[in-house]
Amino acid sequence: MTVNPALIRKDFPIFERTVREGKKLVYLDNGATSQKPNSVIEAESDFYRFKNAAVHRGAHQLAEEATEVYEQARDLVASFLGGVSDEIIFTKSATESLNLLAYAIGSAEPSNRFHLAEGDKIVVTEMEHHANLIPWQQLAKRNRATLGWFEVNSEGRLDLSQIESIIDSKTKIVALTHQSNVLGTVNPLQEIVKRAHEVGAIVILDACQSVPHMKINVKELGIDFLAFSGHKALGPTGVGILWGRSEMLADLPPFLFGGSMIETVSMTEATWANPPKRFEAGVPNMAQAVGLGAAVKYLTTIGLESIHDHEMKLTQQLIHGLQSNSDVEIYGPAGCDMRGGVVSFSLANIHPHDLGQFLDSQGIAVRTGHHCAWPLNRKLGVVATTRASVYLYNDSSDIDALLLGVCDAQRFFARA
Amino acid sequence: MDLSNLYQEVILDHYKHPEHKGLSLEKDVQVHHINPSCGDEITINLTMRDGVVSDLTWDGVGCSISMASASMMTGLLHGKNAAEATVIVESFVDLMHSKGTSQGDENVLEDAVAFAGVSQYPARIKCALLGWMAYKDAAIQVHGK
């Protein structure tokens, strides 16, 4: 199926509004968050309207129905990722998913497979979002482990030439992003997963920028854990996913303690429920989980392969257009191979904030700043960049508008 | 909202030709401030002699609003005594929080009233205030010395 943005936009009520005094909304900030289709908005509000009760508690009809739709959402996410339902943990965000892992691993006893001892190593990359850097950086500090990382080369790709010494025999964790939120680079997992498993390390994938935009099958990727956020994948805010391989989750200690996650409790002791409940303490964000279920259903109906093809066409158009402007510098791969629909660039003499403000006056929403990847920005030698990121509802007129906006901004700021 | 209201020519001019930029070798205090949401940075060197701002220089990286604002501020505060400087700073802070209802007091702020338009763009107020907050911090530190 080919993606028809005009048709798709009809499903997204936000495109009925205009911005900045009647201008068409050109939304190119999808790397930050996606817009929501009616089916998601309705699924979330219908939960409150018709089913609202605390899941997994109570014997009344509403509690049963709420539990049923909540668990259906889990099933939908599981099949979306190619996993099984008990491997899907609902969190409040991808950030929480990654922190859950870091804290759970950090508390593992010496007898536990996840135990992180003094001198053990955690490996990340230089292109991580703060959400997949700081939890590991701080875990390494707490447990006196060391932190190592893959550097980013001039093409915006990971330098894997030292893979054997970076992922060494001391390495217990390799945590990396599937697709850079700044560069758009898609990382080659096969080689990294192979090396990590060779030394007995686990692989944790930050899939926030990939899961919403490309077909993912966790089993085929061979990874051990994966995190993504609902709101970047057409879903509501307040819901994230942690997927973990069954045999991994079985041994992982809990992070948050409280209701629902226990098996037995006395005044001095407690034992834990099996996954996924062990990791879902308290009444969860039920309506949001149900909304995410509707989101992955929507994405599956359109088809992730089609969405990815569509995005890459737009990305190619954008990169070509920007390349024809001699004042533009693009950060990240110039080609479309192993790359997603995120393009960061700078414009000579115009700070990204000023460019972003000008584009906003034309109705064009982009992201400006360090994109929560400060170390990568330092590596690139820039304080900030402008980032455009596409999704299924964007079309080539959106890209044209951006390219024109960049030229108009150059004229505007040259006037003084 | 007309964007040229935000980006008045005097602002773009200060951005392209900043004043008092480049840190002086001697100073009583040095203050470094960053805007963690965007990465803009500023460093200012402040020297007070007999209660008067005798030297105020700055360096930094950031957008036209933050850099032009720092440039104009240093010019405005030079030669003012601590109390006068405080009046100017408070006047500018009030203008930034005016949500477009104030044009600013030209007698106090001179060219810096050009930033009045910024107050209608909530995300940019922090940019305009970056240098001013650094000065406020420096003034407190000097006072404590």
TrEMBL record, chain A:
Domain Aminotransferase class V: 26-402
Recorded GO MF terms: cysteine desulfurase activity; pyridoxal phosphate binding
Pfam families associated with the record: Aminotran_5 (PF00266)
PROSITE patterns attached to this UniProt entry: AA_TRANSFER_CLASS_5
InterPro entries in alphabetical order: Aminotrans_V_dom, Aminotrans_V_PyrdxlP_BS, Cys_dSase_SufS, Cysteine_dSase, PyrdxlP-dep_Trfase, PyrdxlP-dep_Trfase_major, PyrdxlP-dep_Trfase_small
Keyword Transferase: yes
Transmembrane regions listed in the UniProt entry: none
Biological process annotations from GO: cysteine metabolic process
Cofactor needs: pyridoxal 5'-phosphate
PANTHER family per UniProt: CYSTEINE DESULFURASE (PTHR43586), CYSTEINE DESULFURASE 1, CHLOROPLASTIC (PTHR43586:SF8)
UniProt-recorded name of the protein: cysteine desulfurase
Native source organism of the sequence: freshwater metagenome
UniProtKB/TrEMBL annotation, chain B:
BP GO terms, sorted: iron-sulfur cluster assembly
Stretches assigned to the NIF system FeS cluster assembly NifU N-terminal domain: 7-127
Gene3D superfamilies documented for this protein: 3.90.1010.10
Pfam families for the chain: NifU_N
Molecular function via GO: iron ion binding; iron-sulfur cluster binding
InterPro entries: NIF_FeS_clus_asmbl_NifU_N
NCBIfam families given in the database record: SUF_scaf_2 (TIGR01994)
Listed name of the protein: Unannotated protein
UniProt lineage: unclassified sequences, metagenomes, ecological metagenomes
